[in-house]
Amino acid sequence: MRILMLNPNTTVAVTERLATVGAQVASPGTEIVPLTATRGVPYIATRAEAQIGGAIALEMLAEHHTRVDAAIIAAFGDPGLHGAREPAGALAAGRATSRSSRAYRNRRGGGCRRSRRSTCP
Hints:
Order of helices and strands: EHEHEHEH
Structural class: alpha/beta
Shape: globular
Number of helices: 4
Number of strands: 4
Helix content: 25-40%
Strand order of the largest sheet: 2-1-3-4
Distance between the termini: 35 Å
């Protein structure tokens, strides 16, 4: 399986780190295909930057989706994720969405919430 590790910001070092970690946890035989945006912002930290990153993520996915089996949008807030899921047969996930799903599946004793008085273990 080939998984596109799509970083919609321009920081190559972040993409390299994501690809390294992804390769460490991927199943044997899985190839992580890292891709960094060639334009946009170095780090997505605001809603406006997320909108820019989302458009760039969709452009990157449109250009590269035929060469991979799945894609991960690896940026804060999963910019462009909902649009990436629209094309028929598109298999796309986001970092935040993946973490939330995993946390929900792994919850103990009715769940957990983060606050000053956290109920999380």
